Amino acid sequence: MRAAVLQAERDGGRLDPPMLAILDEAANVCKIQDLPDLYSHLGSRGVIPITILQSYRQGQRVWGETGMDALWSAATIKLIGSGIDDADFADKLSRLAGDHEVQTLSVSTSASGKSSSVSMRQERVLPADAIRALPKGSALLLATGIRPALLNLKPWYREPDADRLGAASKKATAAITERALAKAPSGRDQYGPAA
Question: What sequence ranges are listed for the domain TraD/TraG TraM recognition site (predicted)?
Answer without folding.
Answer: 18-136
